[in-house]
Amino acid sequence: MPEGPSIVFLKNKLTRYRSKTVSEASGYGEMDKSRIANIQLMDIDTYGKNLLFVFKDFFIGVHLGLFGSMLINKRKKVNASFALHFSDAEINFYVAKTKFHPGKPKDIFNFKTDILKPEFDPEFITEELKKEKYASQMIGDVLMDQNVFTGVGNIIRVEVLYRAKIHPESIVKEIPEKKLQFLFKAVVAYAEEFLHLMKTDEVKELAWVYGKKICPKDKTQLVIEEMGKVKRKTYVCLKCQKRYT
Ligand SMILES: [Zn+2]
């Protein structure tokens, strides 16, 4: 499943279509596409795992989910779920979910939680995590909550918890403040590293623990199992990562 950086990577591939005129939209998706005809594409943006096509008074959010993909000026044999057509180009999405939103992305989405936005605000996140619904949860679950850490996927979750030396089953309110601040920094730094590594397709190869069997630091066996409510495959070094409970 794509994570926030994977979507920024796609956005960067589309830069040349910014400010171009979209002649029409097509695809079998149910979203009403009638307003997308001979209209200027003002901007292409992202919010977490959503790719955003911004027009003057509205924008379209595209979510690739587990099996979605995007092709530029190429088509698969199956029909696209959503496509944007230009006079000399087309962007095709397969098995993607689309949503129509009135207004601008900033009116609807809170950029303070997006791990790849300059607006990402550790102080805001700190306050959010003090709320009971997050404070009593495991950090490994909260990291996957797109309302708090928008753009985090399983690879980022596993890698940053290892870097911050926090066991994923640690309860949020028991984690020392300094540790949490370190974790936020690790999230931002690793999201940028992830984006960089996508260019050479080395994200998995150069991960420290995700997809590995032993801890790179002390060579002990990693615990590999589905943990927490999110039930996602988790890699933990019990020597390096402390459990705060
Ligand atoms: Zn270790």
From TrEMBL:
GO biological process, one term: base-excision repair
Domain Formamidopyrimidine-DNA glycosylase catalytic intervals: 2-93
Single GO MF annotation: oxidized purine nucleobase lesion DNA N-glycosylase activity
Transmembrane segments: 51-72
Domain of life: Bacteria
One protein family per Pfam: H2TH
Keywords annotated in UniProt: DNA damage, DNA repair, DNA-binding, Endonuclease, Glycosidase, Hydrolase, Lyase, Membrane, Multifunctional enzyme, Nuclease, Transmembrane, Transmembrane helix
InterPro entries: FPG_cat, FPG_N, H2TH_FPG, Ribosomal_uS13-like_H2TH
SMART domains per record: Fapy_DNA_glyco, H2TH
The reaction(s) this protein catalyses: Hydrolysis of DNA containing ring-opened 7-methylguanine residues, releasing 2,6-diamino-4-hydroxy-5-(N-methyl)formamidopyrimidine
Family: Belongs to the FPG family.
Descriptive protein name: Endonuclease-8
Source organism: Kaistella chaponensis
